[in-house]
Amino acid sequence: MTNDESRGRRVGQHPILTFADRGPVSFTFEGRPMTGRQGETIAAALAANGVRLFRHAEKTGRPRGFFCAVGKCASCLMVVDGRPNTMVCMEPLREGTRVERQRGRGRLQ
Amino acid sequence: MKTVDIAIVGGGPAGLSAAIAASRLGAKVALVDDNDRLGGQLVKQTHKFFGSKAHYCGTRGMDIAAILEQELRGLPAEILSGTSVVGLYGGRVLALASRERFTRLAFKCLIVATGAAENNLLFENNDLPGVYGAGAVQTLMNVYGVKPGTRVLMVGSGNIGLIVSYQLIQAGIEVAAVVEALPRIGGYHVHAAKLARLGVPILTSHTVLRALGKEEVEGAVICRVGRNLKPLSGSARRLKVDTICLAVGLTPLSELLWQTGCRMVYVSELGGHVAWHNENMQTSLCNIYLAGDVSGIEEASTAMLEGRVAGAHAAAQVIGLNPEAEGVIAGSQAELCAIRKGPFGDKAACGKSRLAECAALPA
Ligand SMILES: Cc1cc2nc3c(=O)[nH]c(=O)nc-3n(C[C@H](O)[C@H](O)[C@H](O)COP(=O)(O)OP(=O)(O)OC[C@H]3O[C@@H](n4cnc5c(N)ncnc54)[C@H](O)[C@@H]3O)c2cc1C
Ligand code: FES
Do B294 and B257 form a contact (C-beta atoms < 8 A)? Predict the structure, then answer.
């Protein structure tokens, strides 16, 4: 098992829901290795790893995280595998994904 | 380019019901939803629904989604999930974007069932990471099993604020308080009582003044408000929370409807700008329909009924009116009427009757 820091932020015993133990997915955030779960979005995996600051706003530089988590507000844009403006609340997490914070509009690499 | 009789945008209770009704009547249907899972708002509702027995009252929202999806999968309708509708060309063609490709879909009739988006609220630092919509918090904890934070301030005591607070506790997260600007609790008594029993304070005539923290939420300042809803001086106090959850209402997701050029009206009881529509859920353009929260913020049972009306009426338009379609339309309309006459149907009934008044005015 890889070093999974996300355990404490995962919902454990729940009176109604059961969350099947889905397999781990390794990815990096700002170069740091992290572990998420199969079938979740990048935003969910980041939240599980305690990452809430996703980007810095274009004009003010202010920190932003997700807001709606359903692809409606564009608050969660990040650079994913070099591709800026990726809505991470809708983007499935894949093995080896490189996730980086976005500054302003981001640049194509 | 593919052509269908009826294209439906949105796979929540309204869109699913529309697709089922239209497909059963023999129309060629395609349903598009941007999520991988169908069900819209329902997939994250772990509580038993209110409403009438005929509309799955007492069934958990997420189970209603599964029932509707199964029903639709047994019909010849095409389902395009993981696909967003990103535009409309010439009033007859939808632009579709999935992760892999960009395609077009031509239709004879369009049913818009896009639901609603959560409102934000004006306060200092409301853009800090850790200020989340109630729906976002639900998605994170009920769909992905991830805790959005450890201690939450809930803003808004309508049903959504109360239900999500309870769900937070079920997921093992502390709720510091629920604040409500009005002098009374907005949601149903049953939901408020459950929270009260767990010792969660519901502070009426209170609001959030600011979020504390530099890079993310580290606390909140709340205060009392007067009758005019303005903060009372000297009443501010700090709460130690790491998440502020906003449950302050929804606004219909009307972008596509604006793009069709149909007549739009502002009706505050329905949640903002909605496409004007008649009792057949038809807009001012006869081949454009809408159903569910996008036609006015209401509930799942009415969304399903409106979906059925829109689906059956659109199907009748393309394949010809028949007794079966007429039966579905009339039956669903009668049920809608009955629900809106009920104890909680006031607001929607008032909003819908204001639409009827608009009809008499010049556009
Ligand atoms: C916390 C909470 C508790 C609730 N409790 C109850 C209850 O107990 N009883 C009850 O009756 N109701 C309840 N409701 C209300 C109910 O869930 C909604 O009224 C209902 O889901 C509205 O259905 P809809 O189909 O109109 O929209 P939605 O369920 O919102 O579905 C719309 C769908 O369209 C998709 N979509 C939007 N735009 C596009 C696009 N451009 N391209 C592709 N897809 C798109 C969305 O992603 C979504 O999947 C509750 C709601 C909440 C948030
Ligand atoms: S958080 Fe709103 S689009 Fe991703």
Answer: yes
CA B73 from centroid of its chain's CA atoms? 23
In a domain, A107, yes or no: no
The complex scores an ipTM of 0.93
d(CA B75, CA B16): 12
Mutate to test the pocket of ligand 2, among A42, A52, A55, A67 (most ligand atoms within 8 A of CB): A67
B90 touches chain A (CB under 8 A): no
- Does the distance separating the beta carbons of A19 and B171 come in below 8 Å? no
CB A17 within 8 A of CB B47: no
H runs (alpha helix) in B159-243: 159-170, 189-197
Residue type, B19: A
Whole-angstrom distance, CA of residue B129 vs CA of residue B234:
28
Is A87 touching ligand 2 by the criterion CB < 6 Å?
Answer: yes
Nearest CA in chain B to A8: B147
Say yes or no: A14 contacts chain B, CB-CB below 8 A.
yes
Chain B: nearest CA to A87, how far in angstroms?
A: 11
Q: Where are the domains of chain B?
A: 2-117+250-360, 122-246
Q: Is B334 exposed, middle or buried (0-12, 13-18, 19+ CB in 10 A)?
A: exposed
Q: Which CATH number fits domain B122-246: 3.20.20.140, 3.30.43.20, 3.50.50.60, 3.30.200.20?
A: 3.50.50.60
- B40 within ligand 1 shell (Cβ under 6 A): yes
Per-residue model confidence as pLDDT tens digits over B222-262: 999 999 999 999 999 999 999 999 999 999 999 999 999 99
Reduced to 3 states (helix: H, G, I; strand: E, B; else coil), residue B167 is helix
Min Cα distance B144 → chain A (Å) is: 6
pLDDT digits (tens, 9 = 90+) for A2-22: 456 677 899 988 888 888 778
Identify all chain B residues contacting A69, using CB atoms and an 8 Å cutoff.
132-133, 135-137, 139-140
Q: Provide the shortest C-alpha distance from residue B254 to chain A (in Å).
A: 12
DSSP B316-339: HHHH---HHHHHHHHHHHHHHHHH
